[in-house]
Every structure is written in structure tokens, then in C-alpha cells.
């Protein structure tokens, strides 16, 4: 009988070098079919023989039985699937366009009590394994099928229903994202267990993963975490993160050491502030997070500030002040924030004092009295950082105080506007008019802050002003071609987001 190996040999050598031999008589159905092939077409006969053998070799084949039990099927869905229109927006984002709007889309799905379309689950689960903001927004909208699917792939274990997590298995075998989500959940339900997991396996994680996992302790941070955080101050790879957490715990040993150091350097007497600069940065200070030298060059800092920090004593004092809330100093000296700030206003080291106290206060709950006292002395770059942590009503009050009809006031507050999220129609129209004027008057390419903030500011425009937003730009301006792409891309994203919202609210 003609063999499969013979057909392979003919295919490899070619029909001219190795003629195909077909059976002359039929002994079974396969041979009968082979014998009917047209030998006048050697190549066609060879391909026909290969096809017949391939079908014959598959005949009677039975698939292997699984070595483990198949998972139980998913339960019935309890949430309705989002509309086809909303699903089309999701598909657009998963294809890479307007992907920055995906967390917002997921939030809309949750607000409407819906679930994501089943066909998009694999792509969404993959996206969640790479991006924390997507991971956190996914679980409420996965639906039963999504939760079932997440349980089948170890890379998606971070999205299993919290109550069904095999904590030990995920911790031992999961990737950094899975471990991070697990710790984030445990810190809300059992903070001690989360800390114990991290503490007992601390040295088994690489430095970057240690930093990521350590950040989860910020949730429900308490003095129960202090011994562990104190113990890892010797770990230079995560020291900054540990110090950041410890400074949020005023009773911590780190903060108490810092208070003692600051008290030895600052003295308030009869309305006057005396400041003594540190003479050295000891090993103990370095263990507590004080760096011996400032960064070689920080473009975020004004040049005069970098020059100020070039003096080692100034640099060390700044870092010490950042770790101690000035409210504690006021308590110990029995003075008000206004008294301490008034004394600092007259001091040659005012800039160091103000910047240090401002950084310390940003690491603490909002203190209205201290903000009111320190605000008049805040440099612009520090105010921009403070603005993000202020309560929204205070943000709006501050903007109203700082914005005038003059373009310079708009230019000076672009970063604040980009941080402020609760825009109304009146504010949006005022800012839009100013932006158009700024773009129209630009004669050089040196508008880095405007270039940086313009896309974010456009996203703050209320959807009802979209028609106004796309009109009246200075298309005949000298540098319009420099701005048109940036503005157009931001406008397209805003329009897409408006369509997203309309899909969930029945608008057309």
C-alpha cells in the first residue's frame, strides 16, 4: 500500500525527481480513491494524495480527556449589558483611540447599574492587568461571566470576587498588579493581614515591586504599621516611601526625632524667630530620609530656589521642616499660625521656612487656619501644588480672587485651572475667551505652560458648550499651525466624551 511517508518524500524532492507511485488495484476505500487520481497531472495527484491521507489519518481520532475537572459554568447575569452604542465607544477605546477616557466610561457603566459587553472582556481584563485605574473600575461592571473568566487566568486573578480570593495562592503566584490589588482590598478589610503579608515576604520582592506594594499601606494607615515602617528605614530602595508614610503618623518615632531636631534649630521669643542652620547631615539623619545633597538640577524649581538649596544648611533645614507639621510647633510654643508666619515673613530664610512648612502641611489633613496664614507668602509653584489638595469650595474661592479680565492673570493661573474640576458655564466661557486671545497673541513657540495645560483645560469645558468651544479660534493667527493639532485633538476627545455620556443618558 502506498504510504504517507512516500507522499512527503515526493513533496520534498519534487515530482520530477521522485515520481508519485499510485496503487494499481483497490484494496480498500482509501486505496480506491488514490487509484482514481489523474497521473497526467503529477503535482495535482500529489496534492490530492496528501489531502486523502490527511483525512484518513484524522479518521477515528478522539480528543484527549482533560487531566483536571472543568470549571463549573458561570451563573446567570444579574446586570443588563450596556447598549450597543455604548459598546461601540468601548471598542473604539480598546482599539487605542481616546483610551484616556476608558476609566470615565467604566464609571458611567457602574453609575447606570450595567455591565460591560461580554465580547470585550478579554481585552478589558488585559488592560486592567497593566493599569491600576482601570483595574479598580472593572470589578463592579464585569458581570457574572467576567468574574468567571477572571478566575480562569492567573494574570487576571486580581479581579476575582474579593470574597472568593485564595489569598495565599495569589500572593505566592500573582504578578505585581495582582498583589497590589489584593493588598488594597485587604487594607480596607483586614489591614493587619495585609501588612503581615508584605512584612513576611519583604526581601523576596524586587525594589520596584517593594515600592509599589508599600504604597498600599496608605489606606487605613495607623500606628500599628509604625514598627514595620521604622524597620525598613535601612532599606535605601524604599526609604523615601517609608518616610512619607511615617510623617503622616505624628506619634511615630521618626516624627518625634524630627521634632527634636527642628526644636533645636528654631526658637520663637517675643514675636521673633531665631533660626540655626544644621551644621552636618549625620548618618542618623540620612537614615531618617534627609538627603546630603540636593538634586543636581530640578527644572521644576525656580533658579533662585535652586541657588538657595545649593547652601547645604538651607537644604538640610528644608527637609527637616517638611517632615514636621508646623501645627505641632505652634502647640509646643503656645502661639498661633499667624504669629509664627508673621515672624517668618521678616526672616532672611523666609523662603526656606515657607516652602518647608507648605510641604509639611500638604502631607497632613487640610488645615484652614494654616492655609489662611501661609497663603499670602506662598510662591506660585508651591501654590500650584497646594491647590490640588484644597477642598473644592476653597479652590473656587481662590480662583475667583486670582482671575481678572487681564490675560496675565489667566496665564499665571493655567496650572490651577487645569487642576480644578468643578467648572460651570460662566467660568468656562471666561477661560475660553482668554485662551483664544492667548493663542491669537502668541508670536513665539515659547508658551510651555499653555502648551502643557491646554488639552486638560479643554476637557474641563461643560458638554453644553461644545458648539461654542469649537468656534471662534484665531485661525488666521501667526502661530495657528503650531496650535491647531493640539487644540483639535483635545476638542475631538471632548466631543467623544460627550457622546459617551449621551449613550448612557438616552441623548442623541
Q: C-alpha Rg, in Å? A: 33 Å
Instruction: Tally the helices.
Output: 30
Shape: elongated
Largest sheet: 2 strands, antiparallel
Explain how this protein is built.
With 508 residues, this protein is an all-alpha fold. It has 4 domains: 4-57, no CATH class; 99-246; 253-380, no CATH class; 392-505. The chain has helices at 4-13, 29-35, 42-58, 84-94, 102-111, 121-128, 132-138, 143-150, 167-173, 176-189, 191-200, 207-214, 226-231, 239-246, 253-263, 283-287, 303-309, 312-322, 326-333, 337-345, 350-362, 368-374, 380-387, 392-402, 407-412, 414-419, 425-441, 448-459, 466-469, 480-505, and strands at residues 266-269, 272-275. The chain has a two-stranded antiparallel sheet. Helix 1 (4-13) packs antiparallel against helix 3 (42-58). The radius of gyration is 33 Å and the shape is elongated.
Amino acid at each position: 500500500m502506498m504510504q504517507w511517508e512516500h507522499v512527503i518524500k515526493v513533496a520534498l524532492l519534487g515530482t520530477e525527481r521522485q515520481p508519485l507511485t499510485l496503487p494499481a488495484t483497490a484494496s480498500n476505500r482509501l486505496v480506491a480513491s488514490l487509484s482514481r487520481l489523474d497521473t497526467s497531472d503529477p503535482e495535482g495527484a500529489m496534492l490530492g494524495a496528501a489531502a486523502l491521507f490527511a483525512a484518513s489519518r484524522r479518521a477515528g481520532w478522539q480528543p484527549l480527556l482533560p487531566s483536571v475537572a472543568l470549571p463549573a459554568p458561570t451563573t446567570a447575569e444579574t446586570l443588563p449589558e450596556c447598549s450597543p452604542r455604548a459598546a461601540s465607544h468601548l471598542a473604539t477605546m480598546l482599539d487605542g483611540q481616546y483610551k484616556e477616557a476608558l476609566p470615565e466610561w467604566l464609571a458611567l457603566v457602574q453609575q447606570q447599574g450595567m455591565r460591560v459587553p461580554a465580547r470585550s472582556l478579554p481585552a478589558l481584563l488585559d488592560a486592567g492587568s497593566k493599569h491600576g485605574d482601570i483595574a479598580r473600575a472593572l470589578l463592579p461592571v464585569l458581570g457574572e461571566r467576567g468574574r468567571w473568566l477572571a478566575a480562569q487566568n492567573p494574570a487576571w486573578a486580581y479581579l476575582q470576587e474579593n470574597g472568593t480570593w485564595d489569598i495565599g495562592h495569589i500572593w505566592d503566584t500573582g504578578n505585581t498588579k495582582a498583589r497590589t490589588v489584593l493588598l488594597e482590598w485587604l487594607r480596607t478589610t483586614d489591614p493587619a493581614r495585609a501588612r503581615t503579608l508584605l512584612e513576611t515576604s519583604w526581601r523576596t520582592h524586587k525594589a520596584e515591586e517593594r515600592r509599589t506594594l508599600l504604597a498600599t499601606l496608605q489606606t487605613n494607615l495607623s500606628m500599628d504599621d509604625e514598627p514595620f515602617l521604622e524597620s525598613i528605614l535601612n532599606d535605601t530602595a524604599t526609604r523615601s516611601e517609608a518616610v512619607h508614610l511615617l510623617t503622616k503618623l505624628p506619634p511615630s518615632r521618626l516624627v518625634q526625632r524630627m521634632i527634636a531636631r527642628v526644636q533645636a534649630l528654631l526658637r520663637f521669643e517675643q514675636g521673633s524667630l531665631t533660626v540655626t542652620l544644621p551644621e552636618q547631615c549625620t548618618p542618623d539623619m540620612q537614615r531618617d530620609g534627609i538627603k546630603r545633597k540636593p538634586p543636581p538640577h530640578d527644572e521644576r524649581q525656580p533658579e533662585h530656589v535652586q541657588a538657595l538649596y545649593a547652601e547645604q544648611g538651607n537644604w538640610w533645614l528644608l527637609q527637616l521642616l517638611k517632615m514636621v507639621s508646623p501645627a505641632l510647633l505652634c502647640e509646643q510654643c503656645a502661639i498661633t499660625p499667624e504669629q509664627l508666619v508673621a515672624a517668618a515673613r521678616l526672616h532672611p530664610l523666609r523662603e526656606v521656612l515657607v516652602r518647608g512648612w507648605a510641604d509639611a502641611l500638604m502631607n497632613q489633613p487640610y488645615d484652614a487656619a494654616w492655609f489662611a496664614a501661609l497663603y499670602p507668602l506662598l510662591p506660585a509653584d508651591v501654590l500650584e501644588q497646594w491647590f490640588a489638595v484644597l477642598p473644592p469650595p476653597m479652590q473656587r474661592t481662590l480662583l475667583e480672587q486670582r482671575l481678572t479680565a487681564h490675560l496675565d492673570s489667566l496665564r499665571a493661573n493655567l496650572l490651577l485651572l487645569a487642576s480644578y474640576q468643578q467648572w460651570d458655564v460662566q467660568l468656562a466661557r471666561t477661560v475660553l475667551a482668554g485662551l483664544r486671545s492667548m493663542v491669537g497673541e502668541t508670536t513665539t513657540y515659547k508658551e510651555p505652560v499653555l502648551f502643557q495645560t491646554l488639552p486638560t483645560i479643554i476637557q474641563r469645558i461643560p458638554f453644553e458648550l461644545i458648539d461654542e468651544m469649537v468656534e471662534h479660534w484665531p485661525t488666521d493667527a501667526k502661530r495657528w499651525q503650531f496650535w491647531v493639532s493640539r487644540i483639535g485633538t483635545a476638542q475631538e476627545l471632548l466631543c467623544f466624551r460627550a457622546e459617551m455620556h449621551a449613550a448612557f443618558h438616552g441623548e442623541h
